[in-house]
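User: Structure please.
Assistant: Input sequence and predicted structure:
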Amino acid sequence: MINSDIPDTPEIKIVKTNEGAKDGQNKCPKCGATDIGFNIESSLLRCNFCRFEFETERAAGLDTDLSQLEGKVVGTGAMDISADADDVITLKCTSCGAEVVIDTNESMGARCHWCRNTLSIAQQIPNGSVPDMVLPFGIAKNTAQAEIEKFVKARQFFALPKFKEEFCTENIMGVYLPYMIVDINSHATFCGQGERQTRKYTVGSGNSQRTVYDADVYEVERQFDLTIDGLTIVSSSGKLNNASDRTNNIVNAIKPFDHENSIRWDANYLRGFASEKRDTNIGDLKGAVEVKAKDIARHSAARTISEYDRGVKWDKEEMDLKGKQWKAAYMPIWLYSYYQKKNDGRDFLHYIAVNARTSKTMGSVPINKGRLFLCSLIAQIIGSIIGIFLTVSLLATLSGDDTFIALLPLALLSSGFLYWGYFYNKYRNKSARFEHEKDTKTTMNEMVKSDKICGRLVGVRNDKMKDANHLDVKYKK
């Protein structure tokens, strides 16, 4: 259970993350020129006139001591999208006075058609276009191309022939995707039973011989304060959709991003890149964030119960969310996409994505299922022959508790299915995901432990606790 009843009022705190920002021209702080570009090699803005490089200041006003975070804190860029807000807005050029129209669905900036000065959106507007912060690209296109080519090269043998013919990394795109970054201050309580193995031994004789276990059973309780720093969730509904004809999990699998290096929103960082506008609100993402937070708390608690080698079954899981902070951000990726037209008339969209900060790469490559089926069939035939031969040979020489060893070669009877499963997963990566439960930054404090023995198990046959759930993950997208 999660207690998330943090009232929206009066405790909600709206943080103006771009206080003082003005729409229009962005000028070089050294020479005053307005022709500002982005240098991907340094991740800095660069004046195209004097070549001076500079960085936008970090977003201000957000809480950094998460242990003191209380209530609901929302950056202005993360506020709910206004349904009646216009996507098309007008900026007035401060150089010549011309009015320039910008469609925020397409771009955050434009050139004045008279004086050619660059104008950009700097303030948050209620249609969800402008986030609180942006994490600049740190990986150049040629580096991303090399990573994608390496990824595909490792999957050449079973790749669809047409895909290999058409594959070309020149058309990869640099894209800023919208994310919500959530910081959480919480108190977690877990209560249940755990088992510690005390003895392993053999009973019976001959063919009835078997291995059994003794264990002590404990009532286990863990209470602790937990802060979660930078829990991320994509805020584009399309990328949250894990439909069977999409490989959107690929985009999420290349996390984490070093969000702590994000800077205050400046549209100049988007020049030369595509971007996707946020189309979800905090209310749409709240449920998923809370499930993720509980996964993180469960795995944090698991680090404190290593002595329970047979496992722990939590009967009570509570998480009191004392404070949450929501920030909207743009995160950079390099993206290759490929439409596969199937014989049944359906299209299947494959992605290969590169984290534009860390070079972490994940993707889906179209499979030549005919070749994979043939190779799996060959593996099945060879594996079955070897498996049957080894099983018969071992059964003739082993007895008692060791007979289970003789059954191991029978696994070879499933070699074709295992072969198919291994290579299908290697090419499709349908289960690839970011392990938020392990890799999200957390801090635990004020740990309270209680371990009381409450019983003993004697001669049980299972080597692990039945229904142990201390490593469960509920959110697997």
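The chain has two domains: 2-188+223-364+429-443, 370-427.
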